[in-house]
Amino acid sequence: MRECEWRLGARAAVPTVLGYLSIGLAYGIVANETGLSPFETLLTSLFVYSGSGQFVLCALLLAGADLASIALTVFLTNLRHFLMNLHTATLFPKDKLWEQVLIGSFMTDESYGVLLGQKVTAGQASLAWMYGNNFASYASWCLATTMGAALGKLLPNPAALGIDFALIAMFVAIFSGQLAGMAKRLPLKKIGMVLLTVMVTYLLAGYFMTGSLAVLVATLTACLVGVMTDD
Prior knowledge:
The chain is built from twelve helices and no strands. The chain has 231 residues and is mainly α. 31% of the residues are buried.
């Protein structure tokens, strides 16, 4: 049963896997131009495992930033993961702490979005399902980034291939499934209010802070609106 659930989780992660293959190649090419070897690029994916954080890492390496500045910037860039993991822990309340830590350590924005879609459509997600979701994404990211670093000199301009659009397409694929499920259970007025809150807050916050912090503020504000309008 657990093996079947694991496969279902991995299958649900297919949009993420396809997106990671493209974005991972782009990161590998950038890492190669930064001076990282394919092995060093693989290490950043294994231990950092953050698309935005790894791109920031390359930019800071090129700028000659010190280790403490790099660590702090990557930490702030991924601060939103605290929110995602706090919520995810409530979805697996009967599982052991080390199992919840394992889920959180390998969870990304995309695998979290796939989890939310599963909760909306199926009502629940097992621990084995989440392992399949997480590790399918993790394996594809590590593979793609390493391949990108190895092929970096052969693809000097990944934007010309449309690789930079893969992230948008991936989120659209994940979010469309969530939206379809929510529309069956929640009033469209409430959904629209939350989405409008996210958009307006992000645009306003973007004038005063970095993009990562603006995402965090928009998320918290939308959560507040969702709670206030919850029956």
